[in-house]
Amino acid sequence: MQPVKIAIASVLKPLKDSRSYYKFALSLRETNKYQINIIGFYVKKETDENLIKFHPLFYQNRKSILRFSANFRLLKLIQEIKPKLLIVTTYELLPAAVIGKLLYGYNIIYDIQENYALNLIHNNSGNKLVRFLFSKVIQCVEYCSRPFIDHFIFAEACYQQEFPAIKNHTLLENKFQGPNLPIVTPNKLTNKHLRFLLCGTLTEVYGSIEAIEWFIQFQKIYPDAQLRILGHAPLARFRERLKTSIAGKQSIIADISPNPIPYESILDAFKSADAVLLPYHQIPSISPKIPSKLYECLALGKPFLFTTNPKWQELAKTYNAGLEIDFKDFSEIPQIHESLTSQNFYNTTEMSLPHWKADEEKFLALIKSLTSI
Asked: Which SUPFAM superfamilies match (predicted)?
């Protein structure tokens, strides 16, 4: 029996994205029933694997107008692949997905990873009126595509409230999908030379600047501390601002890229970190979510410092995993250092950590129902 063809398409996510590849594609491959075609942003050439093929869709910078021409490229790939199911991960590709469905008759899943319209409204970059108008364009594209979408996946529980009209959905959060590694518990940071990590997407509303400024003040008191920055700063102006803020700082090791960072590199950075910084601004497009980095910290047994958020505080308390701090209040730094170096993290009996395996069966059952296997 020939494997059923499935395509997973995005514009700006790398081909080996933590969700599309590490969660969806690898879970599907384990069944030996599907040929998975991952369509995404070209960061580096990826070699095809058993039952997984990679198709670069987009090569340009994030703000390029050619992002919208990616629809034509997607239609061409759909014609070549002839999938039975297409999983779309961004609103930008919905027009091509719908046209392709009318032409070739496949099913569509829209994996809503972000509330793009809400993100745009609360993003601090660009003209407010332009952001508002474009958010309405996004909502229009998503609304008009809805009748053609067979099922929705929500990456965040809060989307159930933010998209109340969508009833045919499955919640699949961004839980860690790697191996269940043994965690040394309790985890006490005996290293006096604390190594902090700031990683992933770097933007203004993600608090990247506040994290850097906080660390600079921390390092003035504790000069042996280090900060590693490994991230993707999509906006050129903000990327230059980040580089300026760390210029001449020997204790900050930075790899700030205009393109997404390979997920393997992020996980490697976790291994050498003592604590991870989660300095997100608490705005409506962020505060209801649970960052994937928080799940990664829990799975890898890494303490994390985070801005005030009741949901995150609940998780931190359950696993004794992190400290709630104000990244703008430098007077608290001595107390934070004391807590980091004296507290036993993960010294809890509650070690049923949030993991993708708990949701994998739901995902596979959904795919089976839409491919008639």
From this structure: UDP-Glycosyltransferase/glycogen phosphorylase (SSF53756)
- Architecture of the domain delimited by 4-175+356-371: 3-Layer(aba) Sandwich (3.40)
| Matching residue, tokens 């994030």 | 62
Per-residue DSSP letter, 165: T
243: three-class secondary structure by DSSP:
helix
Burial class (CB in 10 A: 0-12, 13-18, 19+), 310: exposed
**Cβ neighbourhood burial of 314 (10 Å; 0-12, 13-18, 19+):** exposed
CATH 3.40.50.2000 at 187-345, yes or no: yes
- Where do we find the tokens 């660009």? 126
Per-residue pLDDT reduced to its tens digit, 118-143: 999 987 677 889 999 999 999 999 99
**Residue 217, both tokens:** 């003040």
pLDDT tens for each residue of 94-115: 999 999 999 999 999 999 999 9
